Amino acid sequence: xxxxxxxxxxxxxxxxxxxxxxxxxxxxxxxxxxxxxxxxxxxxxxxxxxxxxxxxxxxxxxxxxxxxxxxxxxxxxxxxxxxxxxxxxxxxxxxxxxxxxxxxxxxxxxxxxxxxxxxxxxxxxxxxxxxxxxxxxxxxxxxxxxxxxxxxxxxxxxxxxxxxxxxxxxxxxxxxxxxxxxxxxxxxxxxxxxxxxxxxxxxxxxxxxxxxxxxxxxxxxxxxxxxxxxxxxxxxxxxxxxxxxxxxxxxxxxxxxxxxxxxxxxxxxxxxxxxxxxxxxxxxxxxxxxxxxxxxxxxxxxxxxxxxxxxxxxxxxxxxxxxxxxxxxxxxxxxxxxxxxxxxxxxxxxxxxxxxxxxxxxxxxxxxxxxxxxxxx
Length: 377
Ligand SMILES: Cc1ncc(COP(=O)(O)O)c(C=O)c1O
Known about the structure:
By secondary structure, the chain is of the alpha/beta class. About 40% of the residues lie in helices and about 15% in strands.
């Protein structure tokens, strides 16, 4: 399959998004989860057309987005979504916080599995709760630990399915056990499935709501924003599959859906309905970059260890053997001029780690690993 091209670095540096504006121009930026590939053409076309028409108003309250998502999820995962059970939100963060706000009373525990996507630690208090940590064990869910946590009756379990930053795709057996425990202890599961379309060759994604018994206890947060690089356009969805969970979403602030980006809706519809050939090329490209990164690390940074992710374009690198203590990120940044995410942002379990974004060109990965290797003491 034809891999996706990446524009020359001088062109990438003209982008004004966080990834490309956060650091000085001599730094190779591999932190923020944005991708360097060109937009999928059907998405670019729909956005161009909207600009031409000055079609820059509010999103229409019609079912087009919900129907597009239902079509995509059915074809890709055999997940039957009722379009009437899809609620647009501005982004996954808004969907998660509004959901947790409905579920949590002040200072209620909300279960999170570190190392975890850093905003999870902020969403829980924003919603009025507090984080209760059940760390992953060897990169997988600690089901016994979750049972102990659920026995304390937390307000919710905030799950990353697949898991950012380690890239684990939870198996259907693991998720079935999560659902069993959630039902047994009455703990709602908020399943953040933003990385679902980014499951790489070799792994299979299970939408939580396809599991028996999940409908009454779980909601799913889905978005095209990671897989098609649309984060700035502001569109995600909350999906439910039972009247009980839909009733919770009905308690969101009434204007929530008006705060969604119109461009985000247009682009997401194009992604779900016409963006699958591009997604397949993306997955082949990420598979290629994952293998390349493995070769470059083995050759140039043999003391860095990692488990290649089953999903996402994020590599979770264990740098504890480098002798840089808690802060390998500083070593790579100060000496190598390569920016990666510091592991401690993902919780204490991230000590000695960094997260590297490999959704870029082979040339940039080559340069970045060369610079990282040259930065070693
Ligand atoms: C697990 C996870 N959830 C949510 C987000 C952010 O989504 P949004 O921009 O839609 O809030 C990210 C971004 O990388 C993520 O990795």
